[in-house]
Write a structure and sequence with these properties.
Blueprint lengths: L1 H18 L1 E11 L9 E5 L5 E5 L5 E11 L2 H10 L1 E7 L2 E7 L3 E6 L2 E6 L7 E10 L4 E5 L6 E13 L5 E13 L5 E5 L7 E7 L2 E4 L6 E7 L4 E3 L3 E5 L3 E6 L4 E5 L3 E5 L5 E8 L2 E4 L4
Parallel strand pairs: 2-6, 2-10, 3-9, 3-11, 10-11, 11-12, 12-13, 12-14, 13-15, 14-22, 15-23, 16-22, 17-23
Antiparallel strand pairs: 1-4, 4-9, 5-6, 7-8, 16-21, 18-21, 19-20
Length: 287
Amino acid sequence: MYRVIYIMLLMVVATSLSFAQRHTETIEKTLSFASENEQKVVFVENINGTVEISTSQTEDVSLQANLEITGESESIVVKGKDELKVVSKVLKDTILIYVYCPAFNYYRHNKEKRYDYNSQSIDYTFKTHIKLKVPNNILVDASTVNKGDVVAKNVDAIVKAKNVNGNIYLTKVKEVLKANTVNGEIKIECEQAPTSNAQFKTVNGNIYLNYPKSISANLKFKSFNGKFFTDYEVSKYLPVEVSKSSKDGKSTRYKLEGYTTVQIGKGGPVLDMETLNGDVYVGSKKL
């Protein structure tokens, strides 16, 4: 009885696989900034797949997008080819790259980017591996949602990164201002000491931050099921922060923020690190 069921299940799986159709496509573009004098910014926003960033040898941005579409029939795959787009726009000092899919509404509000699911179903699955080469001394804001990581290596730029179901790996970058994910780890290696406040957050995963041997900063840590480790010498333990919680007209309530904050060196930029299920490691030793 069990053997018959097993064979039948194999037949069902084999049948479904035999009917699956797949399309792959590579898109390549070279994008140039329209402005020469302002701080240049690149926004790259993926949905399913990895975003990979490296250094360009020119002042242009080089884009390569490897798109994969899978469906149960050729007509469904053709529909996916018609609907899915890798969009790029040049807006003076800003280059915007994002994946268009009819199941998501993409928009920007108050300089923030948003992908909102609009309940429109699609019959195909897709994945996009985006590779970017960017010039030095710019700001790169990169994100993805599923099926991939945000990766940057040997980039002389300031980086912001966001993920949902995946990791963030930023190695030998100039500085990182933000790295947030939900289900994944964060590994950062910065070439210079922090000069601005920065935020690093994950729900399920560890956070690893690597900076030069000598820095001055305030390390702010919070975790529900995790510990904090550093090889920097702590010069001072700072008081717990207190903030207003509510005010009913008669009295004001305050709450403790629950962060542990320590000063490294002379203090300075605040590195805000938070995880629910994971540890935080900050130091000068290579990860």
